[in-house]
Amino acid sequence: MKILVASLPNRPTHKDRTPFAELLAQVDFLSLHCPLTAETRDLIDAQAFDKMKNSAFLINCARGGIVNEQALADALRQGKIAGAATDVLSVEPPTQGNVLLAQDIPNLIITPHSAWGSVDARQRIVNQMLENFEAFKQGKVIRQVNG
Question: pTM of the predicted model, to two decimals?
Answer without folding.
Answer: 0.77
